[in-house]
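Morning. Coffee machine broken again, so started the prediction first thing and wrote up yesterday's gels while waiting. Chain of 83 residues, entered below exactly as on the submission form.
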Amino acid sequence: MLTCKEALANLSCYLDGDGTEDLRLALEKHIARCPRCWVVFDSTKKTVRIVTEANPFEVPLEVSARLYERLAQVLSQADAPPA
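Came back before lunch.
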């Protein structure tokens, strides 16, 4: 039986479809009986699905211009010597 630490350490392998059949079965068994690990597994699985299924979009030019301007300000402040 896997501990929570072992289950969470192998969660990414499971979600990626990697690992052995024994590991997959042990993780599924652990997740089925451990509510805390099930929550981590479920939310991670949903997050991965949202990120991988998201359609790319183009940022409007005025938004990206403002973003780059603000980034330049922050970076120049970070490079300035302390007052």
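The two ends are 58 Å apart (CA to CA). Going to sketch it on the whiteboard this afternoon.
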